[in-house]
Amino acid sequence: MATTTRSLAAFSSSTSAASRAARPGPSRVSISGAEREQARRLVAEFDRAVPLACAVTPPSGWYTDPDFLQLEIDRVFLRGWQAVGHIWQVKNPNDFFTGRLGNLEFIICRAADGKLHAFHNVCRHHASLLACGSGQKTCFQCPYHDFGLIPVKVATWGPFVLTKFDDDSTEDNVDHIVGDEWLGSASDLLSTNGIDTTLSHICRREYTINCNWKVFCDNYLDGGYHVPYAHGALASGLQLQSYETLVLSGDHNFISKSLKDSEQVQMEDIALCEGVQRGLESPAYSVGRYAPSVEMAMHHFHCLLHANLSV
Ligand code: FES
């Protein structure tokens, strides 16, 4: 079982001590040949060529096997761009937040001159973490013996802060290419219709969920199939035939009611996901089926992941 944690956090404009040590690139998890072989066997147990109507879901090992998770961390999370935060978290000079992606600790920060930076949040001397949580700092200094930080590629796209741990290029400002690299052909569509950077960032909440990360993704990708059954309060407030989105800026009652409702749905989903994870670990379960009329996005997600892990 893996723990899915929505957590983020921070930054430094001072890397002077960094020059005291060599500049390594500690970006990847290491996977032995035997572990990779076991993970590859599990990847091959899903057949993305089978049409949705008769496809079976990936085997439970995709959600429970530690070697498979290591392969995912290496192939999915530590390659290419990852959204790690919102630009409002580093809105002002000296703002920072910290976070963890797989086994990588990182800091995002905005320097006094307004430039955004990202660093591995681990000291290159004896591995002390340099910062935690979020807040304001003018420089990051190891609390142990005062060594510095290893930089990571960072960019913004719309309201998102993104990092890329496997990029050693020296190009500095990559904001103009990150959309295409991250989203491919969807970046134009989303920037035209789906991304509103004028929306205010109200708050950030973190939840630790005892399930594999895909269980939570699957929960969002069942086309609303579970909403009437699992989210009674939410379902009673939705009229999907006339569903529309309104933006009510500055309406504090609306904001606090939305946060309260969202919290309820979140806790209901956590209970569902943790129940699914326990079921996936049962020897009585191996693969499931899709509901073709609603779970096409979930099937698409599994096919994309299969393609990624098969390369
Ligand atoms: S562990 Fe950071 S300076 Fe020694």
Poorly predicted segments: 1-27
Output the strand order for the largest sheet.
Answer: 2-8-7-5-4-3-6
**Tell me, what's the shape?**
globular
Please give the oligomerization state of what you see.
single chain
Estimated helix fraction? 25-40%
From the N-terminal CA to the C-terminal CA, the straight-line distance is 25 Å
- Give the integer mean of the pLDDT values: 84
Main sheet overview: 7 strands, antiparallel
Ligands in the model, by name, code or SMILES, are: FE2/S2 (inorganic) cluster
Number of helices: 10
Q: What's the number of domains?
A: 2
**Structural class of the secondary elements?**
alpha+beta
Which helices and strands, and how do they pair?
Blueprint: E1 4-5, H1 33-44, H2 61-64, H3 66-77, E2 81-86, E3 95-101, E4 104-110, E5 116-120, E6 134-136, E7 150-157, E8 160-164, H4 175-183, H5 186-193, E9 208-209, H6 213-220, H7 227-230, H8 232-236, H9 252-280, H10 296-310
Antiparallel strand pairs: 1-9, 2-8, 3-4, 3-6, 4-5, 5-7, 7-8
